[in-house]
Amino acid sequence: MANPVFSNSPVFGEKQQRQGATLAAPSTIDAASLEHMYDAPAATPRDTGRMTYDDVIMKTGALLALLVLSGAVTWVVAPGLWIIGAVVGLVLGLVNAFKREPSPVLISLYAVAQGVFLGGLSAFYEAQYPGIVGQAVLGTLAVAATSLVVFKSGKVRVTPKFTRWLIIAMGGYLVFSLLNVVLMLFGVGGGQYGPLRSDNWGILVGLFAVGLAAACFLVDFDAVKRGVEGGAPRKMAWSAAFGLTVTLVWLYLEILRILAIFRN
Predict the structure, then answer these.
(1) Hey, what's the signal peptide range on this chain (predicted)?
(2) Any alpha helices (H) in the chain, and if so which ranges?
């Protein structure tokens, strides 16, 4: 094929053509071989190179292990590096979010950067409010587990209307957060991360953000289910793991901030 798009494609490439020619050739398989083929177990998704739930679970676990390890090292060695981790994590998060093909290396580096960010920030909070990090971790796991149970029960369905509502709500929350950052940079107000997130507003805003994160988990779980049932390539498990990790990090930060407000 002259068109490089088709010639380089695993579906339309030369390899596929050779396979088609082989199938079209006269069969020389004997009866014993045919019987063995019919008796063989059916090919699993892993055999055919498709994404499975195990792939997503294993890769998500690997990313969380990298995050926790880098966070623990930062906590002990250099908590002040959290600023660098925040910037690098943001950049890598945007790069991975807009990449068409998942990059295991970039996704793993994102987990390490976020670990540096969370490790330093958690050390700061723990110094002010002893025990708060453990509470935030338990709260994060509880919300994530509850979202999974609700999704598995089928009581909340991820419909197009639900997804549109979530996108609008997250867009509004993003605008709110950016406005708050601008006001904080110009020295307007105070409190937890700026005037619009002070103690008076902080709890309500935090609970709203936790609700958004729980809704994001439902969308994430639905996306994983669609990918597995639709026969997505195994490499897309990295994208699924990346999405789940992003939601977990966001949820942990919001719960940590809410607990700090209650401690005050």
Answers:
(1) none
(2) 4-7, 14-24, 31-39, 53-77, 82-98, 104-128, 132-153, 160-185, 199-229, 236-263
On the 0-12 / 13-18 / 19+ scale of CB atoms within 10 A, 66 is buried
Residue-wise pLDDT tens digits, 32-85: 655 555 555 554 555 558 899 999 999 999 999 999 999 999 999 999 999 999
Measuring CA to CA, how many Å separate 29 from each of 13, 24, 205? Answer: 26, 14, 68
The answer to whether residue 222 scores a pLDDT higher than 90 is yes
Average pLDDT over residues 110-134: 95
Distances (CA, A) of 144 to 63, 215, 242, 247, 248: 16, 10, 15, 9, 8
pLDDT confidence bin for 28, thresholds 50/70/90: low
What is the model's pLDDT at position 206?
Answer: 82
Question: Whole-angstrom Cα distance, residue 239 to residue 262?
Answer: 35
d(CA 112, CA 127): 23
CA–CA gap between residue 7 and residue 14 (Å, rounded):
6
